[in-house]
Amino acid sequence: MSGQFLFDGPEDARATLLLAHGAGAPMDSASMTAAAKALAAAGLRVARFEFAYMAERRSGTGRKPPPRADRLMPEYREAIAALAATTPLVIGGKSMGGRVASMVADEYLDAGEIAGLLCLGYPFHPPAKPDELRTAHLLELRTPALICQGTRDEFGTREEVAGYPLSPRIEFLWLEDGDHDLKPRKSVSGFSAADHLKAMAERTRGWIESRLDGA
Question: Most exposed: 63, 120, 190, 193, by fewest CB within 10 Å?
Answer without folding.
Answer: 63
